[in-house]
Amino acid sequence: xxxxxxxxxxxxxxxxxxxxxxxxxxxxxxxxxxxxxxxxxxxxxxxxxxxxxxxxxxxxxxxxxxxxxxxxxxxxxxxxxxxxxxxxxxxxxxxxxxxxxxx
Length: 103
What we know:
Mean pLDDT is 84; it is low at 3-7 and 14-20. This protein has a four-stranded antiparallel beta sheet. The relative contact order is 0.24. The chain contains three helices and four strands, in the order αβαββαβ. The chain is globular and about 35 Å long. By secondary structure, it is α+β, with helices and mostly antiparallel strands. β2 and β3 form a beta hairpin. It has one domain: Alpha-Beta Plaits.
């Protein structure tokens, strides 16, 4: 029977990059940033795009109706202050945040 960890040439198959990159989640944090000035879905997308460009940001959800962005990030690579700055760079006003440890 064939070994699923080996390719047809008999070499070990490489693990998917996402599996390797996300094996250590001890530094992952979750932050909820309250934001003023969002009025529509385009506002959400502008903020989301600005946050997703940052190294260490894993997931971003932005909701203009609640005026909040939720971000899962690696605290070893980026801090909350840098995330707040990204919201400002998108042209919006962060007015507070709540942070917690993920996991």
